[in-house]
Amino acid sequence: xxxxxxxxxxxEIPPAGDRVPFTHMIPLDEIISESLQVGKASKKVxxxxxxxxxxxxxxxxxxxxxxxTEIASVDTRVAEGIGKVRKGELQISPGFDGQYGQVHIFKxxxxxxxxxxxxxxxxxxxxxxGLF
Length: 132
Description:
The chain is mostly helical and 132 residues long. It has helices at residues 2-7, 28-36, 43-56, 59-65, 68-72, 76-87, 114-126; strands at residues 91-93, 102-104. Helix 2 crosses helix 3. Mean pLDDT is 80; it is low at 114-121 and 123-132.
């Protein structure tokens, strides 16, 4: 490590005023997936993604600029997820030993939008033991 530091031509992390500004982003389909608690490749995610893109035209516009109230007019769960991403309210689990790290928007079930919690309670109450 000493040799690397000798060859370095600048400090490890430039001061905040000297570096180019950046924004952390999560792809829209991943936000939708976590908001709906379904897989990223599911049909629900694809349909909602297409609806959002058709309504607002660009993914970056949706993720960065569009007011959350406009997004909420299509889906409040996704709007809440995008709001949390914009604020940086993420749970990041680092990777290890060949495992990728994971980023979660909602830390636990209590944080999932209320509509999701109601759906989960309804589906678990309606299922009968011993049946698929």
